[in-house]
Amino acid sequence: MATTTLTRQAPGAARNSVLNFVARSWSYLFLLGMVLFFSIFGQGFFSVRNFSSVLVTSTLVTLIGIGQTFVIITAGIDLSLGWTVGLASVICARLMRALVNVNGFDPTLAILFGVGGGLLVSLIPGLINGLLIARVKVPPFIATLGMFGIVRGVAFLLTDGQNVVGNLPSNIRSTLSGIGNGSLVYYTPGYGISLFNEPAGLAPDQLRGVQLLAPYPVLVTIVVILIFGFVLTRTQFGRHTYAIGGSQEASIRAGIDVRGHLIRIYMLSAFCAGIAGVLHVFRYTAGAPQAGEAQLLDSVAAVVIGGTSLFGGAGRVRGTVIGALIIGLLSTGLIILNVDSLWQFVVVGIVIIIAVLVNQAQAFLERRKA
After folding, report:
1. What angle, 0 to 180 degrees and rounded to 10, lies between the N-to-C axes of helices 343-369 and 2-41?
2. What is the dihedral of CA 226, 227, 228, 230, to 10 degrees?
3. Segments of 22-138 assigned E as strands
4. SS3 state at 220
5. Which of 12, 61, 83, 150 is at a distance of 20 to 30 A from 162, taking alpha carbons?
6. CB atoms near residue 280 (< 10 Å)
7. How far is CA 74 from CA 134, 325, 338, 355, in A?
8. pLDDT, tens digit (0-9, with 9 covering 90-100), for 50-86
9. Where are the domains of the chain?
10. What is the Cα 186 distance to its own chain's centre?
């Protein structure tokens, strides 16, 4: 009788195991499926140049998404991050331009001060958000929506209503572009591998064939991923973040400084947006108030697609990275297939809904198993 019962339960247990695996790994499977689909039907999709371009264009979404991951794990949300990116880029560019015009000021120091200024200013919206949410008990949606408008207005006021702050001296622009659009490793057909710079004396058609194997923006983003991924999964700070997302009341009873931790979470999130703003200056040799506007919703989408629960208490940085890559590949693949770029919004929306449904299904399976 016992043998019969076990035999009857085995197919159900196997089915649940398969469903659990699909629910946990669906974003990885979806990413692999997209690569295969676009490689078959999109001419030139499967190439080092294309993948390098996808990685570079995904850096801003990834950086904003990393900060958003910490916030959403605590059951919050930060709607001001897109404009924090713009504010950081504007401050960074303006500082560089102001300092380099000072007689005798070292251009390298001007760049360093610009980077430091952009990162420091980005912390201010995060600090105010954290204080409003943790101390005044303003709902995260309302607090960060208000900060959305404030930061947006300040960024445009600093630029006198213009879209872009640029006009940097040529020596600064060449240095910024060399980092923002350069690579640690280059591959040139017929020349092989070169470090730091492209081979000298290349003809125009040879320059078009140069491939960036390790773009600097991607390397910076990888460092950020490793640091914040370690913080979230291997430190007490990360454990407290998960605990607060699971239950603030229980966290308070456990002795966790919930209010202080939430303030630090929103400052961390804004700091990630500041890094994205500084990278924008390096890539485009200019600061733009709207630098991160389009990436805000994409970052939330990346976090959700990556498996972070909107109800808090669950999520991983690596999942957000996969989500950002999915969005980047979707955009590039649709362009290669000559699909109207507006369809990207539709497809990303569908993927978000699928992600939420999968997360709900996974939670149901876990409750059923328990």
Report:
1. 170
2. 80
3. none
4. helix
5. 61
6. 29
7. 12, 24, 40, 19
8. 888 889 889 999 999 999 999 999 999 999 999 999 9
9. 44-293
10. 25
Q: What are the CA-CA distances from residue 282 to residues 8, 38, 58, 115, 276 (Å)?
A: 62, 30, 15, 10, 10
Selection from 270, 318, 322, 317 nearest residue 296 by Cα: 270
CA distances from 169 to 158, 166, 246, 278, 369 (A): 19, 9, 51, 17, 63
**CA dihedral sign, ordered 143, 357, 243, 120:** negative
d(CA 123, CA 264): 10
User: What is the DSSP secondary structure assignment for residue 307, as one 8-state letter?
Assistant: T
Q: Which tops the pLDDT comparison, 219 or 20?
A: 219
Of 136-145, 197-206, 335-344, the range with the highest mean pLDDT is: 136-145
pTM for this model (two decimals): 0.88
Helix (H), strand (E), coil (C) string for 233-284:
HHCHHHHHHHHHHHCHHHHHHCCCCHHHHHHHHHHHHHHHHHHHHHHHHHHH
**284, pLDDT greater than 90:** no
Cα angle for residues 75, 77, 78 (degrees, 5° grid): 150
Q: Which of 238, 239, 237, 244 is nearest to 258 (CA)?
A: 244
User: Looking up tokens 């339960």, which residue turns up?
Assistant: 9
- Position 18 scores a pLDDT of 66
| The amino acid at 342 | L
Asked whether the predicted pLDDT for residue 141 surpasses 70, the reply is yes
Instruction: Give the position of tokens 């059951």.
Output: 75
Instruction: Please choose, from the candidates 17, 41, 76, the residue with its C-alpha nearest in 3D space to the C-alpha of residue 339.
Output: 41
